[in-house]
Amino acid sequence: MPPSTTKSAGPSGDATSASALPAQTFVQRMSKLILSVQFLWFVGHLVTVIQALTYALFARYGAGGPWNYAKAYYGTLLSYGIIMYKAHGIPQISVAYLHRILADENSWYFALALNWAVSKPLLVTLLPYTVFSLFHSLNYLRSEVVPALLPPAQHPTITPRVQDAILRLVKSYQNPALRLVAFAEVWFLFPTITFGVLLGWTSFMAPLLYARFLSFRYMTSPLTKAAFSELRTRSDLLMAHPQVPPAVKKIYDAARQQVTKMGEAMQPQAQAQ
């Protein structure tokens, strides 16, 4: 999951919550909350969650479905764009800036989101972004929105209970959800995107971009590495079955060797970054 996920205070990196501020009026608290880049980052994630769920549950087959799908990614581009700006500043035409961008996991998610935003709707691509945005939103809601709406000094019982409830929810479901995303990215999304080229769902560039993204994730994410490892183990067992034609086994062995070579070639780059 993108590094920003672990920072509940959002792109500013400031973990100070509204509960630590001096006593303020409701208007002052809400103005301080809303008139910040941090809140805009939160809005982007919230838009992604709402529009993705709207598309998946209600609008997928309707005339407005593609618009809901695109808006989900517009929210993603907003939130990830803010993260990238806070981390790298104004985009520059330089080799050093390019290296920094390519070494940032958020940049790859941003690039993929941009690709999906201008492509035909493909529901499965929304899964990682929706999960990430959901937990980003919950963390920000707990640390910033709840104290602004219900200052602990005025609501010493209610506010901690609400915050604790959100925290328990995040702790209970975040790790399983991230594991689900990692396995979905490897087991389901990549095959779907690849076959999507043949079926006209995606462009020829989509599998290439996604393969590069997965190679980066493999080097930086233990969950993605575990997903690849389990996929290889299960595939080896499947190909070892005597009923599998020799020609299929040969193709599988060649493909596995090629993927292994690509992974080995990526290791020096990842270490250099």
Automatic annotation (TrEMBL):
Domain of life of the organism encoding this protein: Eukaryota
Membrane-spanning ranges: 39-58, 70-87, 108-132, 186-210
Pfam families according to UniProt: TMEM33_Pom33
Cellular component per GO, a single term: endoplasmic reticulum
Keyword Transmembrane helix: yes
Coiled-coil portions: none
Keyword Repressor: no
Species lineage: Eukaryota, Fungi, Fungi incertae sedis, Chytridiomycota, Chytridiomycota incertae sedis
Family the entry assigns: Belongs to the PER33/POM33 family.
UniProt entry keywords in alphabetical sequence: Membrane, Transmembrane, Transmembrane helix
Membrane topology of this protein: Multi-pass membrane protein
GO BP of this protein: endoplasmic reticulum tubular network organization; membrane organization
Name the UniProt record assigns to this protein: Uncharacterized protein
InterPro entries per UniProt: PER33/POM33_regulator (IPR051645), TMEM33/Pom33 (IPR005344)
Localization per record: Membrane
